[in-house]
Design goal:
The chain has 9 helices and 7 strands; from the N terminus they run H-H-H-E-H-E-H-H-E-H-E-E-E-E-H-H. The protein has 224 residues and is of the alpha/beta class. It has a 3-stranded parallel β-sheet, with no helix packed on it. Strands 1-2 form a two-stranded parallel ribbon. The longest helix is centred in the first third of the chain and has 15 residues.
């Protein structure tokens, strides 16, 4: 991967002969590989960013697709994730991806972390890194509908209402909005995710509150 990064970053135009020489590959094999992938679509998911070196791997795949006349497709793995992309609520070029956040937490550089409906031990991350991150983070908030393994590391646990217990919407992989209605009432003190953040934001900056999920949706320009 490091050798390929030297070839493609910042993605200069190189001959196949040069690529084969730098990567220490047989030229005929490189030519055959180029013929096989020429014009082909490359499909991956945003889960690639959770892997060590995932960001650079995605950039290399995009460069490969551009070079061979193919297309690079990096799909969200869940409805909520696509919605966050539309809202531009995902890390920017200067932000940390999942792996970097965990590394920062493990080293003490990241002091607080808020997790929403995720068990870090069950999403394909390095278990040792997750364990070190959760043991070293000073303040961990877990907002979830289940008592997962991550729950036992939380400084504060906030019960989250299930999808069937609250009004809201999904944004599918293609960006299409799908609204939904609650069919059963929330149990105990559990609340929809949006209401927890609404109550928190009102304590930070008093204003006219949103009373229903549809009020939140109407306030988002991306969904007008």
């Amino acid at each position: 991967a490091e050798t390929l990064a030297n070839v493609f970053s910042p993605y200069p135009t190189v001959s196949l002969e040069d690529a084969a020489r730098i990567c220490e590959l047989n030229l005929a094999d490189v030519q055959q590989a180029v013929a096989l992938v020429s014009g082909a679509p490359i499909v991956t998911s945003t889960g690639i960013y959770n892997e060590r070196g995932g960001v650079e791997a995605a950039r290399l795949l995009a460069a490969l697709a551009d070079t061979t006349g193919g297309s690079f497709n990096c799909y969200a793995r869940g409805a909520t994730e696509r919605g966050l992309q539309i809202l531009e609520a995902t890390p920017s070029d200067n932000g940390w991806n999942t792996h970097q956040m965990l590394q920062a937490a493990a080293s003490g550089q990241l002091k607080a972390l808020w997790l929403i409906d995720v068990d870090l031990f069950e999403v394909g991350l390095d278990r040792d890194l997750v364990n070190r991150a959760l043991e070293n983070i000073e303040f961990l908030v877990l907002q979830s509908s289940t008592r997962s393994e991550t729950f036992y590391y939380a400084s504060v646990a906030i019960p989250m209402a299930l999808q069937a217990e609250c009004d809201g919407s999904y944004t599918n992989m293609e960006g299409t909005l799908q609204t939904m209605k609650a069919v059963i009432p929330p149990i105990g003190e559990s609340k929809p995710v949006w209401r927890v953040f609404e109550e928190l934001s009102l304590r930070i900056q008093p204003r006219m509150p949103y009373m229903q999920a549809k009020d939140v949706l109407e306030a988002i320009p991306a969904y007008h």
